[in-house]
Amino acid sequence: MKDITCTLLVIGAGPGGYVCAIRAGQLGIDTVIVDAGRPGGTCLTVGCIPSKALIHAAGEFDALKRMASGKSDLGIRAANATIDLGITTAWKDGIVARLSSGVSSLLHKARVKIIHGKARFRDGKTVEVETETGLQIIRAESVVIATGSEPVELAALPFGGPVLSSAQALSLTQLPNRLVVVGGGYIGLELGTAFAKLGSQVTVVEAMAQVLPAYDRELVQPVMRRVSERGIKVMTTSKAIGLSPRGDALVVEERGERQELPADRILVTVGRQPQVTGFGLEDLDLDRAGPFLQIDDRCRTSMRGVYAIGDVTGEPMLAHRAMAQGEMVAEIVAGRNRGWDSRCIPSICFTDPEIISAGLSPDDARSQGIEVKVGHFPFAANGRAMTMDDEDGFVRVVARADSHLVLGLQAVGAGVSELTAAFALAIEMGARLEDIAGTIHAHPTRSEAVHEAALRAMGQALHL
Amino acid sequence: MGEFTIKMPDVGEGVAEAELVEWLVAVGDPVREDMAVAAVMTDKATVEIPSPVSGTVVWLAGEVGDTLSVKAPLMRIETSGIDDTPVPPDTPQEKGAPVDSMTAAETPKEPAACAPLSPPALSPARLPPAAPGKPLAAPSVRLFARNNGVDLRQVRASGPAGRILREDVEHYLAAATDATSARQPLAIKTAQEAVKLTGLRRRIAEKMVLATTRIPHITYVEEVDVTAVEDLRATMNRDRKPDHPKLTLLPFLMRALVKAVAEHPQINATFDTEAGLLTRFSAVHIGIATQTPAGLTVPVVRHAEARSIFDCAAEIGRLAEAARSGTATRDELGGSTITISSLGRLGGIVSTPVINLPEVAVVAVNKIAIRPIWDGTQFVPRKMMNLSSSFDHRIIDGWDAATFVQRLRTLLETPALIFMEG
């Protein structure tokens, strides 16, 4: 097979890699992208997109169940709500297929060459790919490592049998009656809630004292209320020991006491780790930052001409961070002067209700010695929240006390994920409380709570 | 509501026209009675013109650098019963106004709104941003800075809460361009800048041309032993009363000049070329050439013949300060009958001073240096100073010039003569 020589080689077609390749192609760079799987990576095929599909389906089904139970305040009554998880999964797979082929066509449109197969480094600028038709050698002037991350496997609970990774949990066609989720981070809580809504009996086992440890207590509280309303059992400061001898229960140790939690399936979501082994990366001997590849503000690794982007470079392991890095690296390779200078990377937890955060929390700011003004506005005082029959949660704004510069915005509530755009924009633009207060927010929307939170931080709330 | 026209006032001394050096208001600005609205310059002085009424500026006569004749309309003001009437944002342009005034009309109406856009008000200096941590700037501004190689931490912010605006980066770039070229001393430079001569600089240029083309200069240099007068000066400074100013050599020269011109009256005179008229003065008004930030001016110590040494010194100090700060009046900047030019330590050995038209003589003081002088038996160190003097050769013959300077020399070398009466 004839060797390929190109300017830019991207290894991994996840959100970081494919965005990098598309932009590079648009800029006229001779680009090749390699991935063993379908274009889209974890996010598109086994992460963000399929999980959101499942969460949506679960939410719809849950709403229908409430109607069927005769408890709906809206006066809607239904009977015998059922769900066929096989069809749900097929619907989800359809979305994934559409998006993945969309990515392929975007790559083609940008004249990026796609090579299917597992890549392996020969040296920093040469990669061999095992394709269906043989070994393909690719030589490149610049290489981008965008190999992503994979779920962390517990030694005591290896994946397989009843033990599922998040990816496997998204492809179930049979609903488990009893599901134990090990790890109360955002993935565990999102999926645990979805399965509970679909009808599973769910228990969440978390080693720390609080689930969703990435968010402060105030933001987590409304989620915890819903979790207990749904009958999800949460065990904190508890450790998963292993499967019971018969394989139908999880042995859990809570403050020294062991007990067995009967389980049909055990979902392990104890975190993700960078994919840095198995493709010759070890031989390149790149500098590391813990388990991750070390990069500078231009995503350069310790080897000239070798870049790394996305989950392989560290926290936060978020698709939108990877995409921004990918776009930046493509422009750097095109000779433009670029560097990482984003002020915030918004994060979302698609629990029920959703939690979002951009910038600093009040505690973050105070720990940096900044005197802050904090404004809350509850959705209980928001008209749109009432009309959507979901008033839980609030919007919170954190600003410097002296200049009113907005340092952070957080919210918890139904559908607040869409507010992240406004939050991030405010922070990137250097908005002050007065800027948010002086912006007309459309009525009736949940976004009015952002306006009110800013007003309230200045002691001028109108609707409270 | 009415309209009031401010006319170019008669700025005195037969001046027929004056140059506009600064508009202190723009079209649309409110003015109060007695507020200065414009600065005009005659060949003598810069005069601020006050508004006799309150109202709103609706029209300006021209742009800075224009010359306007006396009594010509300078500015129109819409007057109203109430002061501080809010200014309508779109004041109509006066019909028939010169095209020049368009520039003024386009000045933003609201001074506050244009504040960040006015580079002179902001120091482009490398000041730290107000807030710690990452510089506060919108993503588009960050990209602009990056594309231009600007470190935003070095840019001074003019936006709210220390926000860096695109304009701030532009100002920084404009300032940095100069600094960068200064760091590369061997780089080829191709930039050139055309600067229109206005105001004082133009006056100086015109006057120098007139003086050097009309007056046939004769320059005569003589050295003066100032050891004695310097000793006397040191003693007088040491023993002076607290309210007395510290003496330089200049007041001694002025008093010597008063004595010398008394014996050479045609040297303390002005010559009107057109009329062919020489005017001799009994008063000695000594112009003192003074460097100011704007350029050379000549404040005048009037009636030096009636002033003591200390009085002369005090007056020089007062006038020099007034000239430098731009507060000297028209009277203080004109009417001299003879001029002294002194550059102090920068005095050099010889200079060829240009006569301050319409005078006929100028005396330049060169630097004092200790030199070995043969006293008949040996070389002795003496404090020596040259006087370089120019005369209008139409009026002053070489002989007269020489005897005048020799008289000055005698007076300075034997300073007791300066203080002798009669």
Describe the fold and architecture.
Chain B: Its cofactor is (R)-lipoate. Chain B: GO terms for molecular function: acetyltransferase activity; dihydrolipoyllysine-residue succinyltransferase activity; lipoic acid binding. Chain B: Its EC number is 2.3.1.-. Chain B: It catalyses: N(6)-[(R)-dihydrolipoyl]-L-lysyl-[protein] + succinyl-CoA = N(6)-[(R)-S(8)-succinyldihydrolipoyl]-L-lysyl-[protein] + CoA. Chain B: Keywords: Acyltransferase, Lipoyl, Transferase. Chain A: It catalyses: N(6)-[(R)-dihydrolipoyl]-L-lysyl-[protein] + NAD(+) = N(6)-[(R)-lipoyl]-L-lysyl-[protein] + NADH + H(+). The complex is a heterodimer of chains A (464) and B (422). Chain A is an alpha/beta fold and 464 residues long. Chain A folds into three domains: 177 residues, FAD/NAD(P)-binding domain (3-Layer(bba) Sandwich), CATH 3.50.50; 108 residues, FAD/NAD(P)-binding domain (3-Layer(bba) Sandwich), CATH 3.50.50; 111 residues, 2-Layer Sandwich (Enolase-like, domain 1). In chain A, strands 1, 2, 3, 4, 5, 6 and 19 form a seven-stranded mixed β-sheet that branches. In chain A, helix 3 runs parallel beside helix 6. Chain A is globular, with a radius of gyration of 24 Å. Chain A starts with a strand and ends in a 7-residue tail after the last helix. The model of chain A has no long low-confidence stretch (mean pLDDT 95). Chain B has 422 residues and is of the alpha+beta class. Chain B has three domains: 108 residues, OB fold (Dihydrolipoamide Acetyltransferase, E2P) (Beta Barrel); 68 residues, E3-binding domain (Dihydrolipoamide Transferase, Irregular); 220 residues, Chloramphenicol Acetyltransferase. Helix content of chain B is 27%, strand content 25%. Chain B has ten helices and 17 strands. In chain B, a hairpin with a 4-residue loop joins strand 4 and strand 5. The radius of gyration of chain B is 28 Å and the shape is globular. About 12% of the residues of chain B have low confidence. At the A-B interface, loops of A face helix 3 of B.
